[in-house]
Write a structure and sequence with these properties.
The structure holds two protein chains of two kinds.
Chain A: E1 2-7, E2 10-15, H1 22-29, E3 48-51, E4 54-57, E5 70-72, H2 85-92, H3 102-115, H4 121-127, H5 139-161, H6 166-176
Parallel strand pairs in A: 1-5
Antiparallel strand pairs in A: 1-2, 3-4, 3-5
Helix pairs in contact in A: 2-5, 3-5, 5-6
Chain B: E1 8-11, H1 15-25, E2 29-32, H2 38-43, E3 51-54, H3 59-62, E4 65-68, E5 71-75, H4 80-85, H5 87-92, H6 94-101, H7 106-111, H8 114-120, H9 126-133, E6 137-142, E7 145-150, H10 151-154, E8 155-157, E9 160-161, E10 168-175, E11 180-188, E12 195-206, E13 209-218, E14 225-226, H11 228-234, H12 241-254, H13 265-287
Parallel strand pairs in B: 1-3, 2-3
Antiparallel strand pairs in B: 4-5, 5-10, 6-7, 6-10, 8-9, 11-12, 12-13, 13-14
The chains are: A alpha+beta, B alpha+beta.
């Protein structure tokens, strides 16, 4: 059967089998290997992509079901040449070790912040509760998502005040959004203006 | 890599279209809503079919939550997240939000649907226990019209429902009765898992006395189970720890758990007892305004 969908803003059309899963379509047909494929049973969450602006587990969605809809993967997260604040947060706050769960985590984090720009620890942990990190735990992942939230709120406030523009805003925001205040987070690397 | 066996994919554009496809394609066809129960079963070859009829485009037609004076009508394609976030449902039936909070995880809840959950008819399924507790009515449509069945009639056994090959569950109706509230308690091995045991309770109070009560259990029998003996024992009682304890004892005796990786029969009976008490205690506290 022929299926057409939008993937990261580009329309793609392919001849596929009805039984092809979305995760395999993205990886094997489109070469978008940022979406990972883990448990195959909707538990681990490493295959999370967006289907019409909502995170879904793409190992449990048929590619055919995405026909006519919009899919967004981690490859579509950055804006032009700029990383999404969520990606920057994962870098700055050491939100990853092996990186296997990271693309799914970031897609879920992006969706959370779009709905709730100032989430609590509990809300972040709830949002990523369907995703599994086996490296170390979730403290730095939660911190990374907080970093992105703080960053975006600070950027919005600075832009709204009109006091700063352009590169100044970015510079200031990166300084102000230093992940939760330095000494309390000794694991933090690459924070602040260095990023 | 787990993939389903080959099948032909069809997409329905309306309820009538879906029913027409079911009639034409016969018993080798199945509807897929969110797919989060059916697709894993197809991957494991526990479900094999010739045609898969995708009804996700019917969300506009069947995704409603409509409050009426004596009932709330919910379209079969209402997704878990919509049920969780519905303030109308939480106000009338707090048991729904209790249960939705512990169904799978937020990402799965973005896709899974009420109708899909009920039609899967897994004995451990939370919304089935909720609908059993609330004495929900299920509206089943075919080309010759609609029929309405109770939850007891709807679930015929594990993974088997009253919906025939050429029919479709289109709506679930939750009756509103004044003076009541409800709650849901679940024990699971890890966040988002199927229940080891779960218990729903709905109570109605009149002048400080329990005028009616219903308890529904999941994962302790071939279907989610509404226990009539609990209702009989509680009617006319003043809410008390003694009343909850006797209800819990009845629940533990009445259910039919089996031993498996989630626990022994004895442990599950213990949970049925304790969770029934907790659910009743919370439902009463909510009905009397002591807990939101």
């Amino acid at each position: 059967m022929q299926v057409t969908m939008s993937v990261n803003g580009d329309e793609v059309t392919s001849e596929i089998e009805g039984r092809l899963l979305l995760v395999h379509y993205l990886r094997d047909h489109l070469g978008l290997t940022g979406t990972h494929w883990g448990c195959d049973t909707s538990n681990c969450g490493t295959c999370v992509v967006w289907l019409d602006d909502e995170p879904v587990k793409s190992c449990t969605v048929l590619a055919a079901m995405a026909g006519g809809h919009e899919v967004r993967t981690v490859e579509g997260l950055e804006k032009g040449t700029e990383l999404d604040p969520v990606q920057q947060g994962f870098m700055n706050c050491h939100g990853l070790q092996c990186g296997f769960c990271t693309p799914g985590m970031m897609m879920t984090a992006r969706a959370l912040l779009d709905r709730n720009p100032d989430p609590t620890d509990g809300e972040i942990r709830e949002a990523i509760s369907g995703q599994i990190c086996r490296c170390t735990g979730y403290a730095t992942i939660v911190r990374s998502i907080h970093w992105a939230a703080d960053h975006e709120r600070a950027a919005a406030a600075a832009a709204a005040s009109g006091a700063l523009t352009g590169d100044e805003v970015v510079e200031r925001v990166l300084e102000e959004a230093d992940p939760s205040g330095g000494s309390e987070t000794p694991q933090t690397v690459g924070a602040g203006s260095e990023s | 890599m787990q993939v389903p066996a080959p099948f032909d994919y069809e997409r329905a554009t309306s309820v009538d279209h879906a029913i027409g496809l079911l009639e034409r394609l016969g018993s080798g066809s199945r509807l897929v809503a969110g797919g989060h129960s059916l697709l894993p079963m197809m991957k494991l070859r526990l479900a094999n079919l010739e045609y898969l009829i995708d009804i996700n485009d019917l969300h506009d037609e069947l995704g409603y939550i409509t409050v009426e004076p004596t009932r709330i009508r919910i379209g079969a394609m209402a997704r878990h997240r919509e049920l969780l976030e519905s303030d109308d449902l939480a106000a009338h039936f707090p048991i729904v939000r209790d249960a939705e909070r512990v169904i799978a995880d937020p990402i799965v809840r973005n896709r899974g649907t009420l109708g899909g959950s009920l039609c899967q008819a897994d004995p451990s399924e939370d919304l089935s226990a909720v609908c059993t507790t609330l004495a929900a009515e299920c509206v089943i449509r075919s080309s010759s019209g609609e029929r309405v069945v109770t939850m007891d009639e709807f679930h015929r056994g594990p993974y088997e429902t009253a919906v025939a090959d050429d029919e479709m569950l289109v709506e679930v109706r939750l009756p509103i009765r004044p003076g009541g509230s409800s709650a849901y308690e679940k024990v699971e091995r890890r966040a988002g898992d199927w229940a080891v045991v779960s218990a729903g309770a709905a109570v109605w109070l009149d002048g400080g006395v329990i005028s009616d009560a219903r308890v529904g259990l999941a994962a302790v029998g071939p279907n989610t189970t509404g226990i009539a003996a609990v209702s009989q024992a509680l009617r006319g009682q003043v809410p008390s720890e003694e009343a909850y304890a006797s209800a819990g004892a009845i629940a533990a005796q009445s259910c039919r758990p089996t031993a498996d990786g989630r626990g022994s029969v004895e442990y599950k009976r213990h949970l049925a007892d304790e969770l029934t008490r907790r659910a009743l205690r919370r439902a009463v506290a909510r009905a009397t305004g002591e807990e939101s």
